[in-house]
Write a structure and sequence with these properties.
The complex is a heterodimer of chains A (about 280) and B (about 260). Chain A has a domain of about 180 residues: 3-Layer(aba) Sandwich (Rossmann fold). Chain A contains eleven helices and ten strands. In chain A, helix 4 packs across helix 5, helix 4 runs parallel beside helix 6 and helix 5 crosses helix 6. Chain A is globular. With about 260 residues, chain B is mainly α. Chain B has one domain. Chain B contains nine helices and no strands. Classes of the chains: A alpha/beta (about 280), B mainly alpha (about 260). At the A-B interface, helix 3 and helix 4 of A face helix 5 of B.
Chain lengths: ~280, ~260
C-alpha cells in the first residue's frame, strides 16, 4: 500500500500540462427527443492523467462517455481524441484511432459465446497478424496483470461480478492502448473487490503510462484514483478540480453530492395538486 | 379526437415501416460491402463464423425439413388423387406434384422452417448482445457489427437455403411418390420418370431463386429486429416474436408476388 502511494506521487508529476490533450471536448450539446441531456460540456484531459467523471444518476455522465467513444453523434459541439475530431474523420481514421483506445463497460460486455481467453484474444486476432502462439501468450500476460491467470477456459457466465470486470479490463488493455475508458468500475461490487480494482487502475497507469477516464458515482473510488475530478450535474459541469478542491468545494450541489445530502426540491402545491388530479 | 388519434397512429406506423425498410436495405448494402470489400481492407468476413452459422441455420434444420417436406408430399398427393378421382384423372396428380413442389412448396417449407428456427434465434442472440453492450463493445474494438454479425449470417443463408430447398424438393417428391405407388399401383421408377418428364429446368430454378430471396429477407428481418431491441427482457421477447411473425409474413408475400410475375 505504502509503496503504491509513493509511486502515485511520482506518476502524478508525469502529467504534462503543456502537452496536447488526449481528450478534448468543446461545448458538447445533445438531446434525446426534446430532453437536453448534455448542456455545453467542455473538458480536456492531459496525457497520463486519471480523470474521474463523477455525478449522480441522470447527470449525463453515461451519455458523455458514449459520445467520447463515438457511439453517439452530438447535436452540436466537438469531441477530439488525440487531436482528431471523431465526428468528422473518415471511417478508416476512426478505425486506426480505436486501436489506441480500450474500453471496459459497466457490465463487462464480454462476448458470451466465447471463453474468457477468446475474449481477450479477440482484439489481437482482429487487428494484428500475430501467430496464434504469440496471441495466446499476450492474452495470458494480460490475464496475469488482472489476476485471472488460469481462468481463460471459463465462459463469462461462470465468472463473478468482480472477475467479469477484471476480464473486461484485460480485453481492454490487450492492444496496449494509450487511452482507457472505464465505466462504473465499482458498480455492483463489494468494497473489497472494488478497492482491488482501484489498485489495479492505479497500477496500470504506473506500468503502462496510459491516460485513463473513469465514469463513476462511487465517491471513495473516485477520491482514491483521480488526479482530477469533473463533477457533472444535470448535463452541465459543476466544477473540475483536484480531489482536495472537490472535497472542499463550497458549491452547494457539489457539497450535497459528496456529503450524500438528498435534494428536496421546493414543492409547488398547485403543481402537485395538478399532477395528482390529472385525467389522461 | 379518436379520428385524429387513428390518423396519427396510422401516420406513425407508415413512417415506422418506411424507416424499417430503409434500415433493412442499408443492412443489406453494408453486408454486401463487407463480403466483397472487407478482405481488401484487412477486415474480412470470417469463414469460421460463416461455417458456424451454416451449422446452426442449415445442418441443424435438416431433420425438421426432411420430416415436414415428406409429410407435405404425402398430403399433396392424397389431396390431388382425391380431387382428381372425380374426373377419372388420378394419374394427372404427378405433373401437378412435380410443378407445385419444385416451383413453390419446397422453397416455402424451408422458408417457414428457417424463419421459425433461425428468425427467432438470430433476433434473440443479437438482441441479447445489444442489451449487454456487446454490440457497443464490438464497435469500440473497431469491429463493425454488420461485418461480424450480419454478413456471416447472410452468406450462410445464401448457401444453406437453396441446399435445404433441394432436399425438401426431393423429400416431398419421395413422399408423394410413395403414396402414388400405393394408391395408383405404379412403381417408383415409373413415377420418377413421369416426374422428370413433366419438369423443365426452370421449374426447379424458380424454387431455388425464391429460396435465395427468402434467405435475404429472413436475414434482414431477424437482424434488424435484433439490433432494434430496447427495454429489457420484455423488449427482447417482443422483438423475437415480431421477428418470426415478420419473417414468415414477408416470405409468404414475397412468394406471392414472385409467383404472380414468374407464372405469367
Amino acid at each position: 500500500m505504502q509503496n503504491s502511494a509513493a509511486n502515485q506521487v511520482d506518476t502524478r508529476a508525469d502529467i504534462r500540462a503543456d502537452a496536447e490533450p488526449v481528450i478534448q471536448v468543446e461545448d458538447l450539446v445533445t438531446y434525446y427527443g426534446d430532453r437536453r441531456i448534455l448542456d455545453g460540456v467542455s473538458l480536456s484531459v492531459q496525457p497520463g492523467e486519471i480523470r474521474v467523471i463523477m455525478g449522480g444518476s441522470g447527470s449525463g455522465k453515461s451519455t458523455l462517455l458514449r459520445h467520447l467513444l463515438g457511439l453517439h453523434r452530438p447535436t452540436s459541439g466537438r469531441v477530439r481524441l488525440f487531436g482528431k475530431d471523431i465526428n468528422t474523420i473518415s471511417g478508416q481514421e476512426m478505425f486506426a484511432l480505436r486501436r489506441n483506445m480500450g474500453v471496459s463497460f459497466q457490465g463487462g460486455a464480454l462476448f458470451n459465446s466465447m471463453t474468457v481467453g477468446e475474449n481477450v484474444c479477440f482484439p489481437l486476432r482482429e487487428h494484428t497478424k500475430l501467430d496464434e502462439q504469440t496471441i495466446k501468450i499476450m492474452s495470458r500476460m494480460k490475464l496475469e496483470v488482472v489476476n485471472l491467470a488460469g481462468y481463460e477456459d471459463l465462459m463469462p457466465a461462470q465468472l463473478s461480478g468482480g472477475m467479469l470486470k477484471r476480464a473486461a479490463l484485460a480485453r481492454a488493455i490487450v492492444m496496449d492502448p494509450k487511452l482507457l475508458f472505464f465505466d462504473e468500475p465499482s458498480a455492483g461490487l463489494d468494497p473489497v473487490v472494488s478497492a482491488e480494482l482501484d489498485e489495479l487502475i492505479l497500477c496500470l497507469r504506473e506500468s503502462m503510462n496510459i491516460t485513463i477516464l473513469v465514469v463513476t458515482h462511487e465517491l471513495d473510488s473516485a477520491f482514491k484514483i483521480a488526479d482530477n475530478i469533473t463533477v457533472l450535474d444535470r448535463g452541465a459541469i459543476l466544477m473540475t478540480g483536484t480531489v482536495d478542491e472537490v472535497r472542499n468545494s463550497d458549491i452547494d450541489r457539489v457539497h450535497g453530492l459528496i456529503n450524500r445530502i438528498a435534494e428536496n426540491e421546493a414543492v409547488d402545491i398547485d403543481d402537485y395538486m395538478r399532477r395528482l388530479t390529472r385525467t389522461n | 379526437m379518436t379520428a385524429r388519434a387513428f390518423t396519427e397512429n396510422l401516420g406513425r406506423r407508415v413512417v415506422g415501416g418506411v424507416e424499417e425498410f430503409g434500415y433493412g436495405s442499408l443492412l443489406l448494402l453494408e453486408s454486401l460491402y463487407w463480403i466483397f470489400v472487407g478482405h481488401f481492407r484487412q477486415q474480412p468476413v470470417r469463414i469460421s463464423a460463416v461455417m458456424a452459422e451454416m451449422m446452426r441455420i442449415g445442418v441443424q434444420a435438416v431433420v425438421v425439413v426432411t420430416i415436414l417436406a415428406f409429410a407435405n408430399g404425402v398430403m399433396m398427393a392424397l389431396q390431388g388423387i382425391y380431387t382428381l378421382r372425380d374426373f377419372g384423372a388420378e394419374s394427372q396428380v404427378i405433373p401437378g406434384l412435380a410443378m407445385s413442389i419444385t416451383r413453390e412448396f419446397g422453397a416455402l417449407i424451408v422458408g417457414i422452417v428457417v424463419a421459425g428456427r433461425s428468425g427467432s434465434a438470430i433476433a434473440a442472440r443479437i438482441g441479447a448482445m445489444q442489451m449487454s453492450q456487446e454490440v457497443d463493445a464490438l464497435r469500440v474494438l473497431g469491429v463493425n457489427p454488420v461485418r461480424h454479425l450480419v454478413a456471416p449470417i447472410l452468406l450462410a443463408m445464401l448457401v444453406v437455403m437453396p441446399a435445404l430447398t433441394i432436399l425438401a424438393n426431393f423429400m416431398s417428391l419421395l413422399g408423394g411418390g410413395l403414396l402414388c405407388s400405393l394408391q395408383l399401383h405404379m412403381s417408383l421408377e415409373a413415377y420418377s420418370q413421369l416426374i422428370l418428364a413433366s419438369l423443365v429446368p426452370f421449374d426447379v430454378m424458380q424454387g431455388l431463386i425464391k429460396s435465395l430471396v427468402f434467405a435475404v429477407l429472413i436475414t434482414l428481418v431477424s437482424c434488424s429486429n435484433g439490433f432494434a431491441v430496447s427495454g429489457g427482457s420484455e423488449g427482447l421477447g417482443q422483438s423475437t416474436t415480431r421477428s418470426v411473425v415478420l419473417c414468415i409474413a414477408t416470405i409468404v408475400i414475397a412468394d406471392m408476388i414472385f409467383t404472380f410475375f414468374l407464372s405469367r
